């Protein structure tokens, strides 16, 4: 195992709270008079509720109320025409199986759970379709454009290339399934004052959504979300069940806690939609790409459209004068999807990076050489230089560490007993984003620094990263710096998504620290001290207990001049069992090219997490629907297989760790997404190298390997 | 209505029964005082008398004499009654390990154990692992090796990790991985978790 460069690096600032069980997640706040809400869900897939019998539930012990479309607790925006179709408890329409149709509120969780089982719905059923592949084939089924068609050079140029391929790739529905169950505690008090404890990737976004639905001023709503037990994208929006929780609290005048079940995690909080993609690649005999075509279809719901960046990567990742893409979404009768880690780019990268490997094989080239040969110097899509890109160096590091020289280009060459060994590589790429955020800094005469921003930490270590940025600039010991987040009353910051938090909020931390430093040095000069004097002495001399600065920070013109992306390279070694078709990922080397690494320990963990998520995507994860009933049949951890400890080999994480000169003051680009994007293709490519079997449908299960 | 057409009302509890005191049989079979209690809206407390049973157990060296409904899981009892929320609910089906606690020294998924099954037993939760401010070696190792990200599975991982060593199942990385596979970490901290366990095992500290 690569001895970690990181042992001595700074520990997570909230580590002690997390290992002692003192970190409080949303469901763990004690409120006087707290009640428990349990959701009743539809048992049909499409149609209308014709009757809802809540009497038995209302009579059950401890029940306070049953909330449904029959009593419609007031939500001003839902009383108006238009807006979303899925107006929870305002509609009798059923859009998918497992849709919440009522909430039973009782004084204990067990009583609410029992009473929820007593609610009986009667429906008028309609024909439905939950089968995405079937909808795609049906000429009468709706297909909506998901992104503007893109064309550079000649359309479908691959068709006339010297060497060409055209292949189709399938991804099933994947579910985020963070370990913490979703839900909310809502406490609606007199005068429309609302406090919620939420599981959210954006406290300001939750605050805004509640304000919009109930038409009350955002400042009436306090959103608390200090610790979030994982999100991976599913907590990027405020789901109907959360609106229902607020409604219920308003209705009964008491705080209501809802924690949904693991099964409901499959139906109420989105998923990575299924996708069918076609890639056409053309190359000349020397291995130069002459045409790339990427056409993708993604699944969406009937009541809301969802789109993501499935075909983005094809437009700039490789040097090629002829590129065209198209992306359409196909509605089916399922709950609406939401971005899942790596989002559409991870879906797209599976197809593109598999096809690149296939083309290398067709050309009888080493897939690494083929990638290097077609590596672009500039971004041909935006016609701009990259702000920074060290991909060739990353290829080199990764190839050395995985032992790429042991790989044979001829598939099935490495056999030991019943096990076949293969090596695979793939690339991941994602926008290096930077948004707008505000941070308040309070520098105190006791030598401490308090930083505050309404950002989130769903796990990557936001507080740790921000603390380290401030530590580096202010030379204040880490244990004297506190970063507060997850509170909507703090200075605004965007939601934690799109790998942008460190870049966005970190820049504001940087700006606040710079401002505090210059204020201190002005004060020092003013009071006849050395301008570099220690801030504690300066504050004391001026009889100031503290100084406070709030800064808003955003990117400047540099975004117009450069193309900004984070990159990753994934190398994997797999062992495939010839008789059973079992695939084991036996070695992983990931190289991140995402600018400066601010917090090495937590950055490494993010890369580990991406690789582990990638193993699931590649080998085990598939939410299966029985299309006769429109229901998930593996909606639990026993049947929907996320990777466990024994599925994961040692992972060698490497970073280029060179600052990006343009992105932000730290030179740091995001890395949550690139940790996963492309990984599944590396596994598919390694399985091909091991066996000669090309699997274009995820997950790569033994039946497909043997089939 | 024929008798055979009547469906048994399986959902009714004793209190439902009391609430429907106009039913002749209910009046006939229920003591007058109970009917009166239900009518006076003190039926909740009355129902509790019927529905709860006594329970004595020790949690983190503290003795509790209490009464619970028999359907309450040990997990929900710890979280909702004792407010020991360090033990997490991840699936409620014994499939994820987030709720792992020690019962008489053995690791147990507390969501699969009813509270009343633990009469007279000694429970240790994550809150009972440290000695005051002094972290248990496994807690310290999890911090050192960054054995978590979001932290939600961490309590269960640590309780399992301690048991893994005590059971003698920490002989190799592969063995540790196998015996830690009942604890899911969606953030993917597995290699760091194994590092932490190896470190504690090799360090030789008493766990």
TrEMBL record, chain A:
Asked whether the UniProt record includes Plastid among its keywords, one would answer: no
- Extract the GO molecular function terms from the UniProt entry: iron ion binding; xanthine dehydrogenase activity
- Please verify whether the record's keywords include Oxidoreductase: yes
**A Pfam match:** MoCoBD_2
InterPro entries in the record, alphabetically? Ald_Oxase/Xan_DH_a/b, Ald_Oxase/Xan_DH_a/b_sf, Ald_Oxase/xanthine_DH-like, AldOxase/xan_DH_MoCoBD1, AldOxase/xan_DH_MoCoBD2, AldOxase/xan_DH_Mopterin-bd_sf
Q: Name the keywords, alphabetized.
A: Oxidoreductase
Q: What Enzyme Commission number(s) apply to this enzyme?
A: 1.17.1.4
Which residues does the UniProt record annotate as the domain Aldehyde oxidase/xanthine dehydrogenase a/b hammerhead?
20-127
Question: So which domain of life are we looking at?
Answer: Bacteria
Q: What is this protein called?
A: Aldehyde oxidase
TrEMBL record, chain B:
Q: Which UniProt keywords apply?
A: 2Fe-2S, Iron, Iron-sulfur, Metal-binding, Oxidoreductase
One Pfam annotation reads Fer2_2
MF-aspect GO terms: 2 iron, 2 sulfur cluster binding; metal ion binding; oxidoreductase activity, acting on the aldehyde or oxo group of donors
Residue ranges annotated for the 2Fe-2S ferredoxin-type domain, each copy included: 53-129
Checking InterPro entries in the record gives:
2Fe-2S-bd (IPR002888), 2Fe-2S-bd_dom_sf (IPR036884), 2Fe-2S_ferredoxin-like_sf (IPR036010), 2Fe-2S_ferredoxin-type (IPR001041), 2Fe2S_fd_BS (IPR006058), Aldehyde_Oxdr_Iron-Sulfur (IPR052914), Beta-grasp_dom_sf (IPR012675), TAT_signal (IPR006311)
* Name of the protein: Aldehyde dehydrogenase
UniProt lineage: Bacteria, Pseudomonadati, Bacteroidota, Sphingobacteriia, Sphingobacteriales
């Amino acid at each position: 195992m690569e001895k970690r460069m990181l042992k001595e690096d700074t520990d997570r600032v909230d580590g002690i709270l997390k290992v002692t069980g003192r970190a409080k997640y949303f469901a763990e706040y004690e409120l006087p008079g707290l009640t428990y809400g349990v959701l009743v869900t539809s048992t049909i897939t499409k149609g209308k509720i014709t009757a809802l019998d809540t009497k038995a539930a209302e009579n059950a012990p401890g029940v306070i109320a049953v909330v449904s479309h029959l009593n419609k607790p007031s939500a001003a925006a839902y009383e108006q025409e238009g807006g979303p179709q899925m107006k929870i408890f305002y509609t009798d329409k059923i859009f998918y199986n497992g849709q919440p149709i009522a909430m039973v509120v009782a004084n204990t969780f067990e009583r609410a759970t029992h009473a929820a089982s007593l609610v009986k719905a009667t429906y008028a059923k309609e024909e439905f379709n939950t089968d995405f592949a079937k909808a795609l084939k049906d000429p009468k089924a709706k297909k909506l454009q998901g992104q503007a068609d893109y064309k550079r050079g000649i359309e479908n140029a691959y068709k006339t290339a010297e060497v060409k391929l055209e292949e189709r790739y399938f991804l099933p529905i994947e579910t985020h399934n963070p370990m913490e169950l979703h839900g909310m505690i809502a406490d609606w008090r007199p005068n429309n004052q609302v406090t919620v404890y939420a599981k959210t990737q954006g406290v300001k976004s939750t605050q805004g959504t509640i304000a919009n639905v109930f038409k009350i001023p955002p400042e009436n709503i306090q959103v608390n979300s200090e610790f979030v037990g994982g999100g991976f994208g599913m907590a990027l929006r405020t789901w109907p069940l959360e609106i229902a929780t607020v409604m219920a609290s308003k209705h009964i005048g008491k705080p209501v806690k809802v924690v949904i079940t693991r099964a409901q995690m499959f139906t109420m909080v989105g998923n990575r939609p299924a996708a069918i993609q076609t890639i056409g690649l053309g190359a000349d005999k020397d291995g130069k790409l002459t045409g790339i075509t990427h056409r993708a279809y993604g699944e969406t719901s009937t009541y809301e459209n969802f789109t993501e960046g499935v075909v983005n990567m094809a437009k700039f990742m490789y040097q090629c004068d002829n590129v065209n893409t198209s992306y359409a979404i196909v509605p089916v009768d399922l709950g609406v999807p939401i971005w899942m880690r790596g989002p559409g780019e991870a879906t797209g990268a599976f197809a593109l990076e598999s096809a690149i490997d296939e083309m290398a094989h067709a050309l009888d080239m080493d897939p690494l050489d083929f990638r290097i040969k077609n590596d672009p110097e500039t971004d041909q899509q935006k016609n701009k230089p990259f702000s920074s890109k060290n991909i060739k160096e990353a290829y080199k590091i990764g190839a050395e560490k995985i032992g790429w020289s042991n790989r044979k280009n001829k598939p099935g060459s490495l056999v030991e007993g019943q096990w076949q060994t293969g090596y695979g590589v793939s690339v991941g790429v994602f926008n290096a984003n930077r948004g707008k955020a505000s941070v308040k800094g309070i520098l105190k005469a006791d030598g401490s620094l308090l930083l505050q921003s309404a950002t989130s930490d769903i796990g990557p270590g936001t507080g740790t990263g921000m603390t380290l940025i401030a530590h580096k600039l202010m030379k204040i010991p880490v244990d004297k710096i506190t970063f507060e987040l997850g509170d909507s009353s703090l200075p605004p910051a965007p939601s934690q998504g799109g790998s942008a938090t460190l870049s966005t909020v970190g820049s504001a931390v940087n700006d606040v620290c710079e401002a505090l430093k210059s204020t201190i040095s002005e004060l020092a000069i003013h009071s006849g001290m050395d301008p570099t004097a220690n801030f504690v002495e300066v504050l004391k001399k001026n009889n100031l207990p503290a100084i406070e600065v709030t800064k808003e920070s955003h990117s400047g013109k540099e975004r117009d001049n450069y193309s900004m992306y984070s990159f990753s390279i994934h190398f994997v070694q797999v062992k495939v069992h010839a008789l059973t078709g079992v695939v084991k990922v036996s070695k992983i080397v990931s190289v991140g090219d995402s600018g400066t690494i601010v917090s090495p320990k937590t950055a490494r963990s993010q890369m580990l997490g991406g690789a582990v998520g990638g193993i699931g995507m590649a080998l085990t994860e598939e939410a299966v629907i029985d299309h006769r009933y429109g229901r998930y049949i593996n909606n639990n951890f026993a049947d929907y297989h996320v990777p466990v400890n024994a599925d994961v080999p040692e992972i060698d994480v490497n970073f280029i760790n060179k600052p990006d000169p343009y992105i932000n003051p730290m030179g740091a680009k995001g890395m949550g997404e690139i940790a996963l994007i492309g990984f599944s293709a590396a596994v598919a490519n390694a399985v091909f190298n091991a066996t000669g079997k090309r699997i274009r449908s995820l997950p790569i299960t033994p039946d497909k390997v043997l089939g | 209505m024929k008798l055979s057409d009547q469906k048994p009302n399986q959902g009714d509890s004793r209190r439902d029964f009391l609430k429907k005191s106009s039913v002749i049989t209910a009046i006939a079979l229920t003591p007058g005082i109970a009917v009166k209690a239900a009518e006076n809206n003190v039926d909740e407390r009355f129902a509790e008398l019927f529905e709860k049973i006594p329970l004595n157990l020790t949690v983190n060296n503290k003795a509790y004499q209490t009464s619970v409904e028999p359907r309450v899981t040990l997990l929900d009892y710890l979280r909702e009654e004792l407010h020991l929320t360090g033990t997490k609910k991840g699936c409620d089906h014994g499939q994820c390990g987030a709720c792992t606690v020690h019962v008489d020294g053995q690791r147990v998924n507390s969501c699969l154990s009813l509270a009343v099954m633990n009469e007279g037993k000694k429970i240790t939760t994550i809150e009972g692992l440290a000695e005051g401010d002094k972290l248990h070696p496994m807690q310290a190792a999890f911090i050192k090796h960054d054995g978590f990200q979001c932290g939600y599975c961490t309590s269960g991982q640590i309780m399992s990790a301690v048991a893994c060593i005590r059971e003698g199942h920490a002989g190799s990385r592969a063995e540790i991985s196998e015996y830690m596979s009942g604890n899911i970490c969606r953030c993917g901290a597995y290699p760091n978790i194994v590092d932490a366990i190896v470190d504690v095992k090799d360090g030789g500290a008493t766990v």
